[in-house]
């Protein structure tokens, strides 16, 4: 009995789990890459050479630990986005890392080995200025946090506050530097711009003010940008106006005075228009900073100087030099200097800090990527070798956010492409045919040149195909002998070719920093990258595929429109999406701001789709603008319409193209901005296919869908945010005629609204302010039981308004992004892909969002497979397509059809990138892995022979009967 | 069909053939319909139209929509019939596949609002002039308002909407508009219907209705348990009595 129960239990348990991913399928069809973003602070664990820890804090508000041997993440903490999670400061002491977060809001201590939180304290309000360790007699016990009007001292061990003091005259004095030379005092330095410097000394024990002095400095505006502390308590400032340096002894007993040292006397000169920068180092918080420091005189000019006995003496001049930094190991401090070697390489050398002598055998050659940017930051991990000489590794960050970790003599240990932490838009492009296939295809494209030549060419290409096949067989045979794990599938640009079912594609990703990537969708390998210089930080990108890989001798072509958000001026960038090469096609100059861009289905003689750009004077520029294109445009001008949206005025307007490529306004809809503002406009995807024109009802009649390819879904939010009066508006507008097909208002609702517009439906998500929950709403449009014109759809000839059905549901989670699956022919049922803030991606069957779900199930609705209405949409854990591979801060989901009708390729991007496949209707067109070929073929063969034998027997029998 | 699938959302390839121009009449005896002045308490919205061969809009008054106060959906539309000049012009425009445009001023349909806001700009829409001619001037005009009753858009369609090049007899068919006019305020989108659902669930529960009170385990199976217990007790008692007897015997023996 008990055994039976156990059996039942186990089988039930298995049934529950079979719908999820099998363990052996993990990572087979999907991959995830995790990123951290642009590095602000990077610290190495300097305690031992063997340590692999590299701590980074980034602009994306992430604090992470990287393995410095491989570049992989040990752990990563993702804080809130925006200024609330901004990391102000990162300090490392022993195993503990102290982080100040959110403009001095929170002080945290992390255990760096496993990334656990030691403690966290909330600090008083006030904008953060500086933080430093306070050492007393070779021990570091406290950390001081300087804010605009207060200073507080905290224990490192538990975060408790030792004392907090208000700063004297904090409304006029800007306190910016906190300094402790390890001699048991906390010294604050503040400045009244263009007047004087203020020094305040606090007692560590109770925060009592010991001394307070002020020194006249009428030339000084900011301490942070032009002053550092060097040696044992010497404030050193540089003034670009008088080309001089000032020194100030902080701990002298008599009234301190700034002494001026002209740079000229040292034989130095600041490059014109350059703000000189001082770089000093304090190797250990309990000891004063070193007397040596760097002075940057120009963008590529640094000099190592020493302050000794009130005098400054130059140790070594580095001209040219890109980047300099100090590094300390044990008792030795070295200076690392990156100097340009030639156009493509830099060399990094170590110099002793105290003399400026170059250390032998410390050169690292850093080769720069010709398609990348210049190095911007240099972090050095120095260590003592067994023979007591100094060895080191460097971390270099480039303009295009590449992190490279190098070791002597120039081996790149790893690189990370941190630009991918901020993907803005992407497209998937089919891979080209193999070289041999292309060779065969190419024959048809070329002009015929004689019979014999053609025959020879055909023979030679067949020979190439044979050769390739033999090579493939040999490889198979060769690989079969090796264990499976050793067979490497290296993907390179050369071996790139389309697979049988077109499941492998090229992902073209555009990042906010202006770097483009070509990534193999199967493995996630970066195949090409290209850095576009001079891209403004807040640009808007639009990526379009002008020519696919289907037109063989012509290379595929992608066009990226980069638009400056402030001026609206745009520029075009044309490239080959497979190889990442910039195209030599001349692009039209765009002197005026671009309002709209549209990719027409027209093609020029080279099969490139025509791109129309509309500027702010409603003039149209065509690209490519060959004669052929212009002629085609003239012919079809009467059927080319476009729309513009001006959300600041709530104006939607439609235009019509004239034969002379001028435009005319034909319709106008204005949604008053006093009541509501337009937050989103979405059309349908151009590559979307709808297989069935209607839905078969329970009584065998057909309800036809309203499939208007020109329909726009416009979503507005009310300006009144009061919970009773706020609303979300949904307008369905025909983009050609400007006809408002449907207008609905969701009362007591507010954004952020996410919506998807596809086929004959619109799904949107909003926040219900009254019930305080997230809700889904679905709109479906039907023509009715009869089609008005079943052969073609024209917006100009569709007089009857569609029937609109709508239903709403409760969704038990907030959402980050929404997208619908897309398949080759549109036969497969649709799923909605919902990115949740938890990092999960939910594949929600569209069947649950169907306004025809009946209140009470009837015979007919059961026939139609409609689920009876229930107000809540369930979240089932087996619907999470990314099982435990969470995607942090998911920002967008991209879907692309594959060659298999059942399969849709999905890429989710945000901080991480996750690629997988989904099968909304299961894999109906694929045989299972464990399909029994042997059984089937043996049965077939058996039947075949049985028929043969029985036929023979029947013949014999007939013959015998005939003789009788 | 394959072409239609590839259309991007801003492009429609017209498949219809432009209608033929039949004849051009140029008469000057303008005949105008009377504008019925209805009660002034309601709002009135002037509708203007324009149809020009050179396609530069020159709007003229076509008619006025009267909205009954309070009830926005009750409207009356008074308009002029086309003059002979206009008729021939319309046919000319139809012949060159020009556009017939209409526009309304941006204003609020709620009377109290009209005073404090002057109309700024217009809302416009169009149909192909040929379809208007071929439909014998039968059109449907819809005025869309936002939640506060402010006009946001106008739409015009003709029934039927196609241009098939059908010949139109001049005088009779192109004189009077056969217009259906309506004002469309936004529809209230439904919220999740929890109350109904709960009600239905309760009904279902009731229907199944107290099928049997949850009897306790003992109440259900007492007829099996009691004999079993009795049997066990009996056998146990036998054992005990046997043991007791034995014990008694030994003790008796000891005595």
From TrEMBL, chain B:
Locations listed in the record: Endoplasmic reticulum membrane
UniProtKB keywords: Endoplasmic reticulum, Membrane, Signal, Transmembrane, Transmembrane helix
Membrane topology according to the record: Single-pass type I membrane protein
TM helices/strands, residue ranges: 6-25
GO cellular component annotations of the record: EMC complex
Coiled coil start-end: none
Family statement: Belongs to the EMC10 family.
Subunit structure: Component of the ER membrane protein complex (EMC).
The name this protein goes by in its record: ER membrane protein complex subunit 10
Organism per entry: Electrophorus electricus
Gene field: EMC10
